[in-house]
Design a protein that fits this description.
The protein is an alpha+beta fold and 175 residues long. The chain has helices spanning 27-62, 65-97, 148-153, and strands spanning 5-13, 16-24, 112-117, 120-127, 131-135, 138-144, 161-164, 167-174. The protein has 2 domains: 5-31 and 102-174, Chitinase A, domain 3 (Roll); 36-97. The protein contains 3 helices and 8 strands. β3 and β4 form a beta hairpin.
Length: 175
């Protein structure tokens, strides 16, 4: 098992210190999760296209006239919509493949960071918008730098506090 990036901070509370350790997983592991999700989407979309093509062929055998043309047009539109989505997913995959996986000095594409919001910790991977990922029972949000939160975080460094949606987030770890 690979080592995780650790960041320990001390928080003075009253007359004693509380140690909080933020464990960030390896960025390469999160990138692999993202690529697996993207590949799964491609396979799912291609499967739906195959089923639609079969349905269109079956409709050809059993229909005549205007009903046939209307059904065929509907199938074809749906297939074209799915092909567009597959193209977008391939673009997403290309972005993932070109991410900088080195240590981030400031938040940008390829950054993995832990945010503190009071007693809550959020782990964010700035990459592409794929939503929630699970890694070793840890929830990680994959967001794009163009998202509102991504844009608010862009350029900030570890230790910075940002205001977003009337809440204050502190960047407690950055990899």
């Amino acid at each position: 098992m690979k080592e995780c990036a650790l960041k320990t901070i001390r928080i003075p509370e009253c007359c004693f210190n509380i140690d909080i350790t933020y464990m960030l997983p390896q960025k390469s592991d999160i990138k692999t999760l993202c690529l697996a999700r993207v590949d799964k989407l491609i396979v799912e979309y291609e499967g739906v296209i195959t089923e639609l093509q079969k349905g269109m062929f079956e409709e050809t055998k059993s229909s005549a006239g205007d009903k046939y043309e209307t059904s065929r047009t509907q199938f074809q539109r749906e297939i074209e919509r799915l092909k567009t989505q597959i193209s977008q997913v391939h673009t997403t995959k290309a972005i993932l493949l070109t991410l900088n996986m080195g240590k981030s000095i400031s938040v940008g594409e390829g950054s993995l960071l832990a945010l503190s919001l009071g007693n809550t910790e959020l782990t964010i991977f700035i990459s592409v918008a794929l939503g929630n990922l699970k890694h070793n029972n840890q929830s990680i949000q994959a967001i794009s730098i163009q998202s509102p939160l991504g844009a608010a975080l862009k350029g900030h460094k570890e230790g910075d506090t940002i205001a977003f949606n009337q809440k204050k987030y502190k960047i407690v770890a950055l990899a």
